[in-house]
Write a structure and sequence with these properties.
The structure is a homodimer. Chain A has about 290 residues and is of the alpha/beta class. Chain A has 2 domains: about 15-185, Rossmann fold; about 200-294, Pantoate--beta-alanine Ligase, Chain: A,domain 2, CATH 3.30.1300. In chain A, about 35% of the residues lie in helices and about 20% in strands. Chain A contains 9 helices and 10 strands. In chain A, the strands form 2 sheets. The first copy, chain A, has a 6-stranded parallel sheet with strand order 1-4-3-2-6-7, with helices on both faces. The interface of A and B includes residues 121, 140, 143, 173 and 177 of A. Strand 5 of chain A pairs antiparallel with strand 5 of chain B.
Chain lengths: ~290, ~290
């Protein structure tokens, strides 16, 4: 059939882009009325292979997938990178189109936070340490936008990346505490070949910083290896990670922790499920990563 | 048919009483699958004619009505009347049965607030004054339980009484801010023949206090009459109400306010929709009431 030269490989349809609440509500009503299983992938855009792994899983397991793209201002402190956070909507839509994602919701700030908006979710206790210490109102903003997205998009399941480990615990506990009727699926961290965890902020790094940044995942992997070899003193693992970072010239460390995998309480001895977590600046870029310890 | 002597008048069926989340979820799935319009009436029990007016309206306008009965501990301060708050479940079920309410959800405290519960709703700005000043964490508790009930019972519409005027504004704003998919219907205050607003706490009053308490609604009605006569100075109305209360011997006043009907900001001049509100102790019992000014 020579008149039809478009194969699915050469031209992927873009997802349908929804911008307003009425459009979104109409879509959700239709999807629910048809009895679809709906998957939700909340993102701040600037999509990388980590995000795409979530979207792929949703497309595989659900009848309809909604990816949201919204750089949520309430989770950034005034001194943080809200203004320079990468916004790449056109490219994001192409990438999602290639995966066959049918719907993208990308609201404006005024749509999500209209005049007079003043209700927030006070996140659960697990939000208090680590990222919550470094970024005091961060999880309040995260919990609020995620709860609002869960109201706007009554999906069956929502996909999050383990890269934001504490965020996943905050969301799981919020959903449980408030009985939000949605399943939370936490998916594995996607890494560059050299181990660096995928992050939209990696594009801030210079070539030299990019090289330096690999020390973070190396330190975590090293801690995991020590634990595998039977080292149960958490401070030994923390000290080893600090040394790895120092040797790579990473000096501005926000935390290096070995904590209970569920509560994030710092451990003395590793006796059950645990997680190693790092937050550190490489140049001016704040990076986080984590590794489950068995 | 002499073998069937039970008429609906002589024996009303009790509502079905649900105690657990699995039972509730099963019911809600069935109701939604059948396409029912569901009405929700959240209460703390000790039902009076005010509550019953909400349940009646829900039964009239919805296919299925769920009344919840839960004395919510997080909205009481340690010095308040949580322990002595009246609990009259058997009588409540009888009253709801007489109205034909089909479902009552009355969970235990551990069902709503399991171990480790720590997520709360930080209520909107309108929660800050009046009751929010007198009872600092009250609206945090109210917003949290109401949001959780809205997640557990995905109703089309929820009914609240105007008696808790500020609470209604808090809930409306929360629902708007967080995009909770439910309609809020605020229903008129039901009063005793002498004007006293119905309240579960009225049963705390001695005969003498019961008489004294009527001064609250008289003061509000008086303020409304003054406004109707063209008095637009809010302080004149407040002063008149304070005098009414003083003359009745009510001296422990928490607030006497004339405020914007939407924002609850105190007014100097009445130029649009306004509301007069009183909170005062009669004996040891704290009573509230309000009156819309046209």
């Amino acid at each position: 059939m020579e008149t039809d030269t478009n194969s699915p490989q050469t031209q992927s349809p873009h997802p349908r882009l929804l911008r307003t609440l009425p459009d979104l509500r109409e879509l959700m009503s239709a999807l629910r009325a048809q009895g679809n299983r709906v998957g939700l992938v909340p993102t701040m855009g600037a999509l990388h292979a980590g995000h795409l792994s979530l979207a792929k899983k949703s497309c595989r397991n659900c009848d309809a997938t909604v990816v949201t793209i919204f750089v949520n201002p309430t989770q950034f402190a005034p001194n943080e990178d809200l203004d320079k956070y990468p916004r790449t909507l056109t490219r994001d839509l192409e990438l999602l189109g290639e995966l066959g994602v049918p719907y993208v919701f990308a609201p404006t700030e005024a749509t999500i936070y209209p005049d007079g908006f003043s209700t927030f979710v006070q996140p659960p206790d697990v939000a208090g340490s680590l990222e919550g210490s470094s970024r005091p109102d961060h999880f309040r903003g995260v919990a609020t936008i995620v709860l609002k997205l869960f109201q706007l998009i009554p999906a069956d399941i929502a996909y999050f990346g383990q890269k934001d480990y504490q965020q996943c615990l905050v969301i799981r506990r919020m959903v449980e505490d408030l009985a939000v009727p949605i399943e939370i699926d936490v998916c594995p961290i996607v890494r560059e070949p050299d181990g660096l965890a995928m992050s939209s902020r990696n594009r801030y790094l210079t070539a030299e910083e990019r090289q330096q940044a690999t020390a973070i995942s190396r330190a975590l992997q090293q801690a995991s290896a020590l634990a595998d070899q039977g080292e149960s003193q958490a401070e030994v693992l923390r000290e080893a990670m600090r040394l790895d970072l120092a040797q790579a010239g990473i000096s501005r460390i926000e935390y290096v922790e070995v904590a209970d995998a569920d509560t994030l309480r710092p451990l003395e001895r590793i006796e059950g499920p645990a997680v190693a977590l790092i937050a550190a600046f490489v140049g001016k870029t704040r990076l986080i990563d984590n590794w489950l310890l068995q």
